[in-house]
Specification:
The complex is a heterodimer of chains A (about 300) and B (about 250). Chain A is of the alpha/beta class. Chain A is built from eleven helices and 14 strands. In chain A, the strands form three sheets. Chain A has a six-stranded mixed beta sheet with strand order 6-7-8-3-9-10, with helices on both faces. In chain A, β4 and β5 form a beta hairpin. Chain B has one domain. The two termini of chain B are about 30 Å apart. Classes of the chains: A alpha/beta (about 300), B mainly alpha (about 250). Chains A and B meet through α2 and α3 of A and α1 and α4 of B.
C-alpha cells in the first residue's frame, strides 16, 4: 500500500506559540483517517501546511511522494481541501465557480464531472444560482464540490459538518464514503466524535501541537476496555485494597474497566466478601468520547513541564 | 498550456466585468465631469503646448482614469478575497507566484484599457484628440497600467482591512495621479514644484502618453519611457518577492 500522506517531524510556530510541535504521521492510500483534537490543537495548521497555505518551520510533508514545497504543483494537484471557513466568491454562480476552479487545476471542459458532482451533492437545481443567494448548507456543499473538481486522490475535509443540518450531514457522508470506497484517501477533522467513530478507520489525536494518540479506531476503543462497571458504595471505606488498585474513583463513584462481561460476577463477589453495600450500579459502554477525554487528560499531565 | 494562469486572468476580468457599471462606467463618468468643468472654466483662457485646453486635458484624463482603475482592480480583488477568505481558492491550486502576478497585473491593465477606451469615446464628443504616435500611446498606457496593477497587488497583499487600503489609495495613489500634470503642463509651475513633479513617476506616464497624442511633451518621451520602464521593473520585482515569500498570503 502506498503512502498517501507523509508528515515528518513538522513544526510550526506562530510567535511564541508552538502550533505544531514535531508532528509525524503516515496515512496510507485508501484510508479514512480522522484527525481529532480540541480547538487550538493544531489540526487546521497541520492541514494548512499540507495544502501549502502555511509553511512549516521544520519538517517535511508529502502527498503521494510529492513534497508540498519542493514539488508543490504535483502535490496540490493530488490534494483536494474543503476549508473550514464557509467562504465563497460572490461574483459567480455555482457552475461558474466550479468551472473556474477546474481551470485553476489546469482542466478545461470539465462539464461531465462537474455535472456528476453537482448531482451527487444535490446541487443540480442550484447550478446557475449566484453563490450569494445560497443558504449556508448549500455553500458548504459547493465547497466540497470545489475540492473535488480535479478528482484528487487525497481529500481533506476540515470540519465539514460544523453548523450543517442533519440531512446534509448524512448525504455528505454517504458521498464521501463512496469516494473512499472508490479508492480516494480521506482525511477528516471533526468535533463530532461519533462521526469519527463511525467513519474513520484510524485516528490521530492532537493536543498542543503533538500527536498524543494514533491507532485504529477499534484499537483505541478497545484500549480503554469496551465496557466499564460504575458503582457507588453506601460505605466507601470498605472498598478492598485489591479492587482499589483495579479501578479508579471520582466523586465517590468507582469505575472498573471490563475486558469482558464475565469479569462482573467475580468483582461483585469480592465486594460482597468485603462487606460492601452497593448504592448504585451501572454498566457503561466506552465510546470515542471517553477515549478522547481520557487521552486528553492523561497526555496533559505527561506534557506538563 | 498555462490553463491555470489563463483561468485566473479570465476570472479577474470577469470579476470586474460583471460589475462594469461600477468599475468601468463610473470612472468614465467621473472623467467626463472633470473634462466638462475644467474645459468650461479654462477653454477660453488657456492653451498648453499650443493645444486648446480641452484637447490637452483629454489624454491626461484618459491616463489618470486608467491608472487609478488599474490600481483599484488588483488591490480591491485581493483585499476582498482576503477579507472574505475566498483567497484560498487561488492559493490551493498549483498556480505559481509568477502566473499569479501576471494574471492580476494583466487584468488590471485590461481594466485600465477598458476605462481608457470609455473615456476616449465620450470625450471625442467634446474635442477630437489627434494621435500622432499610437505606439507610444499604447506603450505608456500598458506599462503605466502594469505599474499601478502591481502597486495595487502590493497594497492588497499588505492591507488587512479596507480602511488601510483606502489610506493607501487616498494618500498615495490619488496625490500621485492628480499632481502628475494631468491638468497642467509642469512648465507652468514654480521652479520648486517642477522639481518635485520630476520625482513623481506618474508624471512621466502622463507626459509620455500625451506625447503620443500631440507629439509635444514636457520631457523627451525616451526619458519618460526609461523612468516608466524602470519603475515597472522595480515595482514588479517587489511584488514578485512578496508573492514568493508568501507574505500575508501563506502564513
Amino acid at each position: 500500500m502506498r503512502v498517501a500522506v507523509a508528515i515528518d517531524r513538522v513544526e510550526k510556530r506562530f510567535g511564541s506559540l508552538r502550533a505544531l510541535d514535531g508532528v509525524s504521521l503516515q496515512i496510507a492510500e485508501g484510508e479514512f483517517f480522522g484527525l481529532l483534537g480540541p480547538n487550538g490543537a493544531g489540526k487546521t495548521t497541520l492541514i494548512s501546511c499540507l495544502a501549502g497555505l502555511a509553511r512549516p518551520d521544520a519538517g517535511k510533508l508529502a502527498v503521494l511522494g510529492h513534497d508540498v514545497v519542493g514539488d508543490y504543483r504535483a502535490a496540490r494537484r493530488l490534494l483536494g481541501v474543503v476549508p473550514q471557513e464557509l467562504v465563497f466568491d460572490p461574483f459567480f454562480s455555482v457552475r461558474e465557480t466550479l468551472r473556474i476552479q477546474s481551470g485553476y487545476f489546469g482542466i478545461r471542459n470539465n462539464e461531465e464531472w462537474i455535472d456528476e458532482i453537482l448531482a451527487n451533492l444535490d446541487l443540480t437545481a442550484k447550478a446557475d444560482t449566484n453563490m450569494r443567494r445560497l443558504s449556508g448548507g448549500m455553500k458548504r456543499r459547493v465547497l466540497v464540490a470545489q475540492a473535488l473538481v480535479h478528482k484528487p486522490p487525497v481529500i481533506v475535509l476540515d470540519e465539514p459538518t460544523a453548523g450543517v443540518d442533519v440531512e446534509l450531514r448524512q448525504g455528505l457522508w454517504q458521498f464521501v464514503r463512496r469516494l473512499n470506497r472508490n479508492g480516494h484517501t480521506v482525511i477528516l477533522t471533526t468535533h463530532y466524535l461519533e462521526e469519527a467513530e463511525s467513519l474513520c478507520g484510524r485516528i490521530a489525536m492532537l493536543k498542543q501541537g503533538r500527536v498524543v494518540a494514533l491507532d485504529s479506531t477499534s484499537n483505541l476503543l478497545a484500549r480503554f476496555a469496551g465496557q466499564a462497571l460504575n458503582l457507588r458504595l453506601a460505605n466507601p471505606a470498605t472498598m478492598p485494597s485489591a479492587l482499589r488498585a483495579r479501578g479508579s474513583e471520582s466523586d465517590g463513584t468507582w469505575t472498573f474497566p471490563l475486558g469482558s462481561q464475565r469479569e462482573i460476577e467475580p468483582l461483585l463477589a469480592a465486594l460482597r466478601e468485603a462487606g460492601c453495600v452497593i448504592d448504585d450500579l451501572r454498566l457503561t459502554q466506552t465510546d470515542l468520547e471517553d477515549v478522547f477525554l481520557d487521552v486528553m487528560q492523561s497526555s496533559g499531565t505527561e506534557a506538563a513541564p | 498550456m498555462m490553463v491555470g494562469f489563463r483561468t485566473l486572468l479570465f476570472k479577474e476580468v470577469l470579476r470586474f466585468w460583471k460589475v462594469s457599471f461600477q468599475t468601468v462606467a463610473a470612472p468614465v463618468l467621473t472623467a467626463m465631469l472633470y473634462l466638462m468643468i475644467f474645459s468650461h472654466v479654462l477653454e477660453a483662457h488657456a492653451q498648453v503646448h499650443g493645444v486648446p485646453y480641452g484637447a490637452f486635458l483629454i489624454p491626461g484624463l484618459i491616463m489618470m482614469s486608467a491608472l487609478q482603475n488599474a490600481f483599484a482592480n488588483s488591490s480591491s480583488s485581493l483585499i476582498q478575497s482576503k477579507v472574505t477568505g475566498s483567497v484560498v481558492f487561488v492559493l490551493l491550486p498549483p498556480i505559481s507566484y509568477v502566473e499569479f502576478f501576471l494574471a492580476y497585473v494583466l487584468a488590471a491593465v485590461l481594466r485600465g484599457l477598458m476605462v481608457a477606451l470609455g473615456v476616449l469615446l465620450v470625450t471625442i464628443w467634446f474635442a477630437l484628440p489627434t494621435v500622432v504616435a499610437p505606439l507610444w500611446v499604447l506603450l505608456f498606457i500598458v506599462l503605466g497600467g502594469g505599474i499601478m496593477g502591481a502597486l495595487g497587488m502590493i497594497a492588497g497583499i499588505w492591507a488587512d482591512k479596507f480602511d488601510q487600503l483606502a489610506a493607501f489609495q487616498n494618500f498615495l495613489v490619488m496625490p500621485l495621479t492628480m499632481l502628475s500634470g494631468v491638468f497642467y503642463s509642469i512648465h507652468s509651475l514654480p521652479e520648486f514644484w517642477q522639481q518635485v513633479s520630476r520625482f513623481n513617476p506618474v508624471f512621466y506616464m502622463i507626459d509620455g502618453f500625451r506625447f503620443g497624442f500631440f507629439g509635444v511633451s514636457d520631457v523627451p518621451p525616451e526619458s519618460s519611457l526609461a523612468v516608466v520602464g524602470t519603475s515597472f521593473l522595480l515595482v514588479s520585482a517587489v511584488t514578485l518577492a512578496l508573492l514568493r515569500s508568501g507574505y500575508k498570503l501563506r502564513s
